[in-house]
Amino acid sequence: MADERTFIMIKPDGVQRGLVGNIISRFESRGYQLIAMKFQLATKQILEKHYEEHISKPFFPSLLKFMLSGPVVPMVWQGKDVVKQGRAMLGQTNPLTSAPGTIRGDFGIVMQKNLVHGSDSVESAKREIAIWFQDSELTHWKPAQNAWIYE
Ligand code: UDP
């Protein structure tokens, strides 16, 4: 469905390395629609909700420290198959096994500093969008280019 949504977040390393424009541009050029975006320092509370499934893992304290080390860019993108396609555009969790052409495969080397987060299912996307955005922050608009992408 063309109204599928995913949660994509540029991590502090992506911001510090000046890759915000490049990452946004990949989603824009693919034809996906930006629905919401913020630029902010995350908090421990929001990250503990976001990474709920990882809280008891050994890498969590270090992941938390990294995610709090600078601003992040949380975003909502919309379009057909955007959850699965978004993950494919990111690459694998480990940048070293990510194909060139993916964000992590083009710009990353180590597991933690993999530049960007993307929801892994439609269900997680709904959960993550609700953690980072109020309903009123999700903007309704009709991109003029949609007819040239979908029809
Ligand atoms: N991570 C880490 N060490 C690990 C596994 C994961 O630092 O051994 C970090 C990495 O930044 C990753 C995030 O924790 O993106 C969340 O892990 P997940 O397995 O959910 O990977 P993702 O869905 O982001 O590919």
UniProtKB/TrEMBL annotation:
InterPro entries: NDK-like_dom (IPR034907), NDK-like_dom_sf (IPR036850), Nucleoside_diP_kinase (IPR001564), Nucleoside_diP_kinase_AS (IPR023005). PANTHER family: NUCLEOSIDE DIPHOSPHATE KINASE (PTHR11349). It comes from the Eukaryota. One of its GO terms (biological process) is CTP biosynthetic process. The keyword Calcium does not apply. The keyword ATP-binding applies. NCBIfam families: PRK00668.1 (NF001908). Keywords: ATP-binding, Kinase, Nucleotide-binding, Transferase. This is Nucleoside diphosphate kinase. Its EC number is 2.7.4.6. It comes from Tetrahymena thermophila (strain SB210). ATP binds at K11, F59, R87, T93, R104, N114. The active site is at H117 (pros-phosphohistidine intermediate). Residues 3-140 form the Nucleoside diphosphate kinase-like domain. It catalyses: a 2'-deoxyribonucleoside 5'-diphosphate + ATP = a 2'-deoxyribonucleoside 5'-triphosphate + ADP. Its cofactor is Mg(2+). It is an enzyme of class 2 (transferase). GO terms for molecular function: ATP binding; nucleoside diphosphate kinase activity. Belongs to the NDK family.
